[in-house]
Structure formats: C-alpha cells, structure tokens
Specification:
The complex is a heterodimer of chains A (about 450) and B (about 425). Chain A is α+β, with helices and mostly antiparallel strands. Helices cover about 20% and strands about 40% of the residues of chain A. Chain B is built from nine helices and 22 strands. In chain B, helix 1 (about 1-10) runs parallel beside helix 2 (about 65-80). The radius of gyration of chain B is 23 Å and the shape is globular. Classes of the chains: A alpha+beta (about 450), B alpha+beta (about 425).
Chain lengths: ~450, ~425
C-alpha cells in the first residue's frame, strides 16, 4: 500500500499533493433493554486526495474504490484548476516525517470473538437493568482498528495502526409521567484490555437516573456555580475550545481582533491547553491528518490568550506555527482545524475549599452535552446539587448552564487541584464531521455567577 | 454482483435483504466570499441483513468482498435475537419524482456560478459570507429473498449560506439552506437572500430581553426544539421500549385540534422522497397526528415484527449498522399549505404585546428530550413589543414542556416553508418561561 501511495504521489503533476488511505475494521454490539439490538463487524476502506496547483484552490477527491487512486489524483488536480485564486494557498512549513507509528493495540480487538464482546456488554447492561425504577436501557460497545497511510509531495510518508474503544450506557427511569436518564460513557485510544471493570460506572448512572425521579427541577436564576471535573472539561471544550480553532479567525479581521493574542480572557488562575500527544487518550495521535506531529499547545496562560489551534493553512495565514490540529473523521472528509484533548490545568485546593463560603449555589455535575454558538454557549449537566451554607445539599435536575463566553471565563474565580481527564466516548461535531474522537479534562472549577436555566418563578 | 449476493443468501441462510447504494457527491465551497475548494466523494457500499435459524444479523462493507460480508452477517445472526421478519414481496411502486436530469448534468461551472451570485448578493461591510453548493447523484437498489428487486435514482442539491458579523464581542450568525432534488430556481435564491437580509436588518438593534411567562413565535427554523420530543415519541421503536409519552394515546386528542403531522415520502422533489424504503416496503403517506389526535407511529420491518404490526415504510439504512425507522419528509402545521410569505413570524408578530420570536436555540437535543421538557438559551431571537419586532435579544433562555405548549396553539403563521425535509409555518405558543441573565 505504501508503494502504491508513493507511486501515486510521484505520478501527480500538481504542485502540492497529499494522499490518505484508510482501512478500518470495526465491531459493535448494542443492547436496548434486555434485548440485543445487534452484534456486527464492519469493514470500511477508502482514500482521500487533496491537491493545490500554484494560483489555484483545493481540489479534493474521496473514494471507496482504491483501484481508482491514480485516476483520483488526476481528478483532484482538475478540480483544483477550476478554482482560480488571487491569493495563493500557503502552507506553513512542516519538516517531512517518515514514520511507522504503530500505537499500542492494548489487546487487539480483532482477535476477540464477537460473542465475548456481547457477553461483556450484557453484563454492563444488566447492572443498569437491575436498578429499581429503570424501565429502559441502551448499552453500546464499539471498537475499531484503523490502518492508516499518509503521504504528501513534500516527502512525508506515514504508516499507522490506530485502535479505539468506546463503551456507553443510558439508563431511563420512569415513574408515571416523569422520565429521567443517566449516561455512562467511556472512550479510549486503547484496546480490549481496557474494556473490563466498568460495571460500577454503569450501575452508578442507573442509580442516579432513579434518584432524579424524586429530585426537584432547579429554580432558574443566577448563582455561584461549582463545576465538577467532567463538566469543567466539557465547558472548556464548548465555551472556549471552538473559538481557539484558527479557521474561525484566519480570514476574518473582526474575529481576529476578538481573539488577539495577549488579550485577557480570565483571571490569573486560569490556564487552558490542548494536548494531542497525551498518552492513551481518545484525542491522542502521533500526527494529525496533514502529517504534522501533535503537541501540547498552551491556549490561555495566567488568564491571557497565548495560542490557538492550527492547520498548516491557518498557521501560514496568521504567521504562527502549525500545532498538529488538522483532523478529519475519515477518508471521506478534508482535514479541518479540530481539538484533541482539551483541558483546564490544575489549580490549588480541594472541593470543600471551593464551596466553603458559598451560601446558596449550584454544584453542576456530569454532562449530557454542550453546544457553542460563537460567543454563546449552553451545556446540560447530568445532575446537580444545591450548595447550601458551604456544602452540597439536595439533588436537583434539569441543570442547564448558559452564558456568554467572555463573561463566564472572566468569572472563573477559583480552580481546585484535582485535575483528571474525562475519557468519555461520544465526540465532537464541526463542519459536517461528526463524531470526531476528542476528550477533555479539568479540575473542579468555581464560577462566581452563572445563569442556570430551569423553572422560572411566575 | 448484487444478484450473486441474493443467490448466496438463499444458499447459506433462511432469508435476507440488502441495500446497495452508489453515490457521487460534489461540493463547491466559498469561504469568506471567495471560491476556495472543489471536491467530489465517490462511494459504493452494501448493507446486508440475513435471517438464519430464526435470528437476525447484519453486516456492511465498502469493499467488494461479498463472501466475507455474508460470513460476517451470518456470524452476527448467530449471536442475534429471534425475530420473525417477513421480507416484502415485489409489489407495485408509487410514482415519485426523485431525480432531476438538469441537476445531475449540471457542470462544475454552473454550480460555481450559483455560489458566486449568492456571494455577491449577500456581501456587506464587516460581514463574512460562506456559501456552499452540494450536489449528490445516487443510485439505490434494494433486493430481498421475499422477491423485492427495486432500484431508483435520486439527485439532491443543497445550497447553504451563512453570514457572520463581529462587532466587538457581539457575534451575529445567520444561516439558511435550500434543499431539493433540483437546482434552485431564481425564486429559491431570492428566498435565501431575503431570509438573511430581513434577519440581518432587524438584528442590528439589540433589545433588552423580557422576563416571565410569555407568548413566543417559533419560526420554522426555531421549531426544531419543540418538535424533537414529538418526533421521538412517534417512533415505533420508542413506543416498543415503553418510554414514549404517546404510547397509549392512539385515537386520543393530545394536541391542539388544528395541529397535524404527516410523514410524506411521496412529496415530489424533496430530499426525503423515495418510491420504496431501504427494506423494500413501498412508500406511502402516513398521517401521524390528525387535528390533534394521535393516529400512527413509524415502523421498520424489525420493530413492526416485534410490535405485531406492519412496517409503515420507514426503514432507513446506511452501509453500516442495522436498519432503523426514520422519518422521510415531515409536514407539520394546520394542514393549510399557506402562501409562504417571507415576513418573520408569518403575520403572528402583530398579535403579540410582549414576547419573543425564536429562530434558533442553543443545545437542542442535549437534555432529557423524551419527557418533553426543554430549556435552552437563545442563539437568534427577536423582542416583540406591541406587535412589532424591536430588536435582537441576546442574553435570554426559554423553557417549557412541549406537550403543555402544543395543547393550545395560539396561531399558525402564513410563512409555511420547507426547512430541509420538514415543512412547517411559524407557531405562536403561549406560556413559555423566559429568563434573562
């Protein structure tokens, strides 16, 4: 395959050519309630060619028939020449790499019988079904190994084997008209050896779904809010991470002004980064999909914006260095600027320290999801507790946090020392590419005041 | 090659069906007002399902190794649950327009010229304009051991426009999309431009958000959050799981007496249109809610078999994974097609003393959707004061329960339009909680 790729690169008449080839073996098992939904193994393969001639734009061809590779290189060049550009595409320099980067498969999932995967998931699903009040469950096991080849006309040639494993569970509890849910989600760039010993997590979310049946909806309003590790991670991904993606600013002077390096985004306690090179996490890879090595990129240091995430194109446009954040969900798509493993760095102190002087507040825990729309964001906690007189009190539900990025980042006043990575499954969506494997991490974080949606007193 | 697959299923399993789909997708992208990239994606895939010893299994591939595909499907069936799926026989298919030769033959230059026209009409100082034109040509073939062997061709065209304006820390983001089997007409392009122009002009003033329990006009775009719980509840699968609030309500008046929802795969030239579903069941129009009364749920073959009913023709499958029941084209409203005015809110704003127009919410689908409760900050909303829009509202969040709100609909707008594969007018709903920060 490497030779076919190298030959196709050599035969290309375009000024710049890059080729990706992927073969993915995957299997998945899913349960709905007591019933197995499906247990299936899939095979997906295809190629991606992107070329640019000097003075022309990108020509892109993606295809499932690998025999077509040489023809697709020619086709991509024709498409490039249909796009006349006044300002040429420039790519930031990346030293060419030749690498055999076989990640630790951690127990190759391809060697494990489907029946064994089914048995494992049935056990986790059973943990949820056993909880009184739970009327329905969904449990999904998914694994894959992707063999990956990347090459470009500058001399980069990579061959990688990338594993991935995800486990998720949803427990639905119901009493009369009230329906509540709990979500468990685990995602790692690892293999079969990491699939065991997750029963407690599945049981816990089912117990919580049942407990939420008796919990009141949080009273809407503005409160001091403490985020747990998981929600702090989702918050920084949604509320800030997307704005740090340079494709959002590189062709827009006004947006660039909003995101000027050196601008103060928060108080000195706040440090934020994105680390695609961290070990074993879902967003971890040795190289991005342009062949740039991944790295730990500082985004906010001591409250001040110091960096952003780049592809080669955005880095060249802004005169900055590529960060290894050009990623594509598969051969069907072009690489775009994406996060990897995004984090708020640890501060100091414990969770009780964060809460001790809050008379009335909300402790928002876990994440059902989050979305950002430019400067506004929303994220839904899995559950919450009111904070009363400095300590967590009663369980509350429907905790939705909303706000403006700039105000909210600036209101982060204390950060605990208990950093941890989320290691959740799911994924990030952008530009029609979903789900991309990412994760987030953070310590407990205290926001001075944030809007919590919920029941509004009439 | 697909004939060989049916013969192989017959010899190695008790029954089965397969979906073969080949597609060519062309994209022309304008970034920040200039043409930046052209791309194509060519894809061929086969999704196979077998029934063996009473149990069902599935497998998918983009390779050409169909023997391996069948082996994987049989291995899947070995672990599968028993289900008595009856694969459809070869029946008569309804006639529905899904393919347009002009769209299929349109050159790259033609697609580019549509984008260039939109860019020039939408460009204004201080704003970033992105436009993309996508055209898909697909061939689909459904075969099964029940006797079905049907194929059809389809085209799909999507023209997306978005505008972003940054003024200090205020970000305004507007978007709209045309979708159909044909290239957009001049009128379709006018409508896109008008949607952006009107929303832009009214967004320049920022108004203070109101607070309390208020009447809200949900535009066709803004209705997504309101319709999502109902979409989920009308799925036969969710009913079968025992978590649909509508499970026991067939024949009961649950919604406003003027409110109807129909799933209609026979609408000509719509993205969800098809003569046959992905499992070989012929398409038909299916009223789900008629004048407030729940009439039907959507089913695919497997869910129907488990529920002891018949497939409604909603089987939908990709190359990977098993078929699921999904909607085709959803027509929502009072049953009146209306005149399709472009005015925001379709005439409903005039009747509101103090309230909001909601065009887009943030975080739709994140919460506890199935119960009907929602709570979202606004992404794009306008303040209504004394029957007029007085500006854009930024820092507000709305909350309510859709089953409560849809019991009484205070008004249907005259702005009915297609939004992707959903048709609806604006709806005026009373008693929505509005909080500000």
């Amino acid at each position: 395959m490497k030779d076919r790729l190298a030959d196709a690169l050599k035969a290309s008449r375009a000024d710049f050519t890059e080729i990706r080839i992927e073969r993915t073996w995957s299997s998945s098992v899913s349960f709905r309630g007591k019933r197995l939904e499906s247990a299936t193994a899939s095979e997906d393969q295809g190629g991606f060619v992107r070329v640019a001639d000097k003075g022309y734009g990108w020509g892109i061809a993606a295809f499932t028939s690998l025999d077509e590779l040489p023809a697709m290189v020619r086709r991509a060049r024709e498409l490039s020449r249909a796009v006349r550009l006044d300002e040429p595409i420039r790519l930031a320099e990346v030293p060419p790499s030749q690498a055999e980067a076989i990640l630790d498969l951690d127990g190759d999932v391809r060697g494990v019988p489907l029946a064994e995967k089914r048995r494992l998931l049935e056990g986790y699903n059973g943990e949820m079904l056993a909880v009184p009040g739970v009327v329905d469950t969904q449990a999904v096991y998914r694994d894959e190994v992707t063999e990956y080849w990347f090459g470009n006309s500058e001399g980069t040639l990579l061959h990688e084997l990338r594993p991935e494993i995800t486990l998720s569970g949803q427990a639905i509890a119901r009493r009369d008209g009230t329906i509540e849910k709990g979500l468990e989600s685990i995602g790692l760039r690892k293999g079969w050896n990491s699939a065991a010993d997750h029963a407690a997590g599945f049981r816990e979310v089912a117990l919580r779904a049942a407990a939420l049946l008796d919990a009141p909806t949080v009273i809407g309003g503005t409160y001091p809010v403490v985020l747990d590790n998981e929600l702090a991670g989702v918050f920084i991904h949604e509320a800030f991470g997307h704005l740090s993606e340079a494709d959002f600013v590189y062709e827009n002077a006004q947006a660039r002004e909003m995101m000027t390096l050196g601008r103060r985004f928060g108080r000195p306690v706040l440090n934020v980064g994105d680390n695609g090179a961290a070990s074993g996490l879902r967003g971890t890879l040795p190289f991005d999909d342009e062949g740039t090595p991944t790295q730990d990129t500082a985004l906010i240091r001591d409250g001040v914006l110091v960096g952003r995430l780049h592809s080669r194109e955005t880095a060249a446009a802004l005169g900055e260095r590529p960060t290894g954040n050009a990623r594509a969900i598969s051969f069907r798509h072009a690489p775009i600027v994406r996060m990897t493993n995004t984090y708020i760095a640890a501060g100091q102190g414990t969770v009780p320290d964060l809460m001790q002087d809050i008379k009335l507040g909300v402790y928002a825990c876990g994440a059902f999801g989050g979305q950002t729309l430019l400067e506004n964001f929303s994220f839904t906690a899995a559950y919450g507790r009111m904070i009363r007189d400095g300590a967590p009190a009663e369980l509350v539900k429907d905790v939705v946090l909303a706000g403006s990025l700039f105000q909210t980042l600036d209101r982060i006043e204390r950060i605990a020392g208990d950093f941890r990575w989320n290691q959740m499954g799911g994924g990030c969506g952008k530009g029609g590419q979903f789900p991309l494997a990412v994760t987030e991490g953070g310590p407990h974080v205290r926001i001075e005041a944030a809007l919590v949606g919920g029941d509004v007193p009439a | 090659m697909i004939e060989r697959l049916v013969a192989a299923i017959r010899s190695r399993a008790d029954g089965g069906d397969a979906l073969w789909r080949q597609s060519e997708h062309t994209t022309v992208a304008f970034e920040s007002g200039r043409l930046k990239a052209c791309g194509i994606t060519e894809e061929t895939g086969v999704n196979l399902r077998v029934l063996h010893n009473g149990k069902v299994g599935v497998a998918g591939t983009t390779t050409t190794d169909l023997d391996d595909l069948l082996s994987r499907a049989l291995a899947s069936a070995e672990l599968g649950e028993p289900v008595a799926i009856a694969f459809p026989d070869a029946g008569a298919l309804p006639d529905v327009a899904t393919h347009d030769a002009t769209a299929a033959d349109a050159s790259l230059d033609h697609l580019t010229s549509i984008g260039a026209e939109l860019v020039s009409r939408l460009t204004r100082p201080g704003c970033q304009i992105n436009v993309s034109i996508e055209r898909e040509i697909a061939a689909t073939r459904v075969v099964g051991t029940g006797g079905v062997d049907a194929s059809y061709r389809a085209t799909g065209v999507a023209v997306s426009v978005d505008l972003a304006r940054f003024a200090g820390d205020d970000v305004l983001f507007l978007s709209d999309q045309y979708q159909g089997t044909d290239l957009p007409t001049a009128r379709d392009l006018d409508a896109l431009v008008r949607t952006i122009d009107e929303r832009y002009d009214r967004a320049l003033t920022v108004a203070a958000p109101p607070e309390g329990t208020l009447p809200i006009v949900f535009t066709p775009q803004g209705l997504s959050a309101i319709l999502l719980p109902v979409r989920q509840a009308l799925s036969g699968k969710v009913v079968l799981q025992g978590i649909s609030p509508l499970a026991t309500k067939i024949g009961e008046a649950v919604f406003d007496a003027a409110f109807s929802i129909t799933d209609d795969p026979l609408q000509p030239r719509r993205p969800g249109s098809r003569p046959i579903d992905d499992e070989g069941t012929p398409s038909r129009r299916l009223p789900l809610v008629e004048q407030g009364v729940v009439r039907a749920f959507i089913y695919d073959l497997e869910t129907a078999a488990r529920a002891g009913t018949r497939s409604t023709g909603h089987g939908t499958r990709g190359t990977f994974g098993k078929p699921v029941a999904d909607y085709t084209n959803m027509v929502v409203g009072s049953g009146e097609w209306g005149v399709g005015t472009s005015e925001i809110g379709g005439g409903l704003v005039a009747g509101v003393r103090d309230g909001l127009v909601i065009d887009e919410l943030i975080g739709v689908g994140q919460g506890n959707v199935i119960g009907g409760a929602f709570s979202h900050p606004v992404a794009l909303a306008y303040r209504i004061e004394r029957g007029e829009i007085t500006g854009r509202v930024k820092d507000a969040a709305v909350a309510g329960n859709v089953y409560e709100l849809l019991k009484r609909i205070a008004g249907f707008g005259s702005d009915g339009r297609w939004q992707g594969s959903r048709w609806s007018p604006s709806l005026l709903l009373e008693g929505v909680s509005v909080a500000r920060r």
